[in-house]
Write a structure and sequence with these properties.
single chain; Dna Ligase, domain 1; eight-stranded antiparallel beta sheet; globular
Length: about 475
């Protein structure tokens, strides 16, 4: 097992209060603003807000926390969370208005903003954490500093380096870094592709690639949860060039974001699902000092259309040679980020190809869809969780028959498979808000892969009987 520095320090007494802001929508706000269909835009903002209670799990090492959510958290979920993690001091604040830009909502809510000032108390200091270092987050930091508060942002770059968040977290930015780094890090490969800036050219380039290579992938610069990615396989499009070009153009013109941001056109990779589930991933954190900590590696659980569902974490998810290769490559990428001033969490998503290569597909410069799983595993299992447990997660598992169930009912019916602190096995409910949308976010811990899959299957079988 790779030795690493302990990434989660033991809780300690400190004068300043820690405030966490759940700003999922702000991470991709320009993309959300460019969604043409008002209903699709609303759903995107609502779903991000609903996942705010899942973000509680990413703060489980904090002993005294103010958690700011875009949406109220259900009291029974908060109690479930506090009991599971042994949390005693937790205050939850919600802005009066929910626009999707929560940091803006905070400083425009005078009463809430004044509460933050009060939390700085006599030392006039706050530690501010967030899901993402968005432009809105930086404005909030400056608003607090203008009120005489010393704001410490241990997981964010300084303002002059904040460009690294959107640049390296974009499809075009990571592709440019790969092109610059090929001589220094031969393992840093990306699928053959180009970057263009309008849908007319994109349709022409993609059509030619589709016909020549029998498939193509088209990505907007910074999409979210599968939106902004088109995976076009054999049989999806006409093989006549003009007809193919028109079909792609018609797809792209449906949403304004395709013409607003750079478009990346890539070759379709023939995925080898036997290697890390086909989609290996590795996550790190760059500390304020610039030190890079390896956190975990995993396999991503991804749908056919490229929508991220969850993660699979264990030392056996991939062999030692592959593990070493992606960790070394992830460190190399982090060194470039750190040298340019980026601070905070980042991951590297990869695709395992049947030709034996590993291709980087993107990098997320923020907390990720697996960070809450990692934090939960570290807290409940211990720092050797990669060896000691097999972890499965799903962020948006659809409840059968469109059923909607309360958290209390869910915990009652799932009691046979819920996480047991003694055996360190079972299912953890990761969100109550998602239940309102007929979806369950969960994490499963098992002794091994077989055991974890059995627990997951048993839970899903129980839920299939709900009506």
């Amino acid at each position: 097992m790779l030795e690493k520095e302990d990434p989660i320090p033991a809780p300690h007494k400190k004068a300043e209060k820690t405030v966490y802001i759940c700003n999922l929508s702000e991470d991709v706000w320009p993309f959300i603003e460019a969604i043409t269909d008002p209903e699709k835009k609303r759903i995107e903002i609502v779903e991000n807000a609903s996942l705010s209670d899942r973000d509680l799990l990413t703060t489980s090492e904090e002993s005294d926390l103010v958690f700011i959510s875009p949406k109220p958290l259900q009291e029974d979920f908060v109690e479930y969370y506090k009991d599971l993690f042994g949390i005693r001091k937790l205050e939850i604040l919600v802005p009066k208005n929910h626009s999707g830009e929560i940091c803006k909502d905070i400083y425009e809510d005078k009463a809430l903003f004044d509460q933050l000032i009060e939390h700085a108390n006599h030392v006039k200091k706050l530690t501010l954490l967030s899901y993402s270092t968005s432009p809105q987050f930086l404005v909030l930091v400056n608003q607090l500093r203008d009120r005489g508060i010393t704001v410490y942002t241990p997981e964010s770059p300084e303002e002059e380096d904040a460009w690294t968040v959107n640049f390296y977290g974009s499809k075009s930015g990571i592709r440019q870094l790969a092109q610059q780094s090929v001589a220094d890090e031969p393992d840093f490969l990306m699928s053959d592709g180009v970057i263009c800036v309008n849908i007319v050219d994109a349709a022409k380039i993609a059509a030619k690639k589709y016909i020549k290579e029998d498939g193509v992938v088209i990505k907007t610069n910074k999409g979210h949860s599968g939106a902004g990615v088109l995976i076009l396989r054999p049989g999806d499009l006409p093989i006549d060039y003009k007809a193919c070009e028109k079909a792609i153009y018609d797809l792209l013109k449906q949403d304004a974001y395709w013409d607003k941001f750079p478009i990346v056109i890539e070759g379709l990779i023939n995925v080898n699902y036997a290697v890390g589930g086909g989609f290996p991933n590795v996550e790190f954190k760059i500390n304020k000092s610039g030190r890079i900590d390896f956190l975990y590696y995993c396999g991503l659980r991804v749908t056919k259309n490229g929508v991220f569902q969850g993660v699979e974490i264990n030392e056996d998810v991939m062999n030692d040679r592959l593990m070493t290769r992606i960790i070394d490559m992830g460190f190399f990428i982090g060194e470039q980020y750190a040298a340019n001033g980026y601070r905070g969490y980042y991951d590297v998503d990869l695709v395992a190809a049947k030709n034996g290569e590993l291709y980087v597909s993107e990098s997320n410069t923020r907390r990720t869809g697996g960070t809450h799983v990692y934090k939960t595993a570290f807290k409940l299992i211990g720092k050797d969780f990669l060896n000691d447990t097999y972890v499965l997660s799903d962020n948006t598992w659809k409840l059968p028959n469109g059923v909607k169930v309360s958290l209390s009912k869910l915990l009652e019916v799932l009691k046979p498979v819920l996480f047991d602190k003694k055996t360190k096995e079972g299912l953890v409910v990761a969100s109550a808000n998602m239940l309102e949308q007929g979806q369950l976010a969960y994490i499963v811990f098992g002794q091994n892969e077989k055991n974890a899959l059995e627990i997951e299957a048993k839970a899903q079988k129980i839920l299939a009987k709900l009506s």
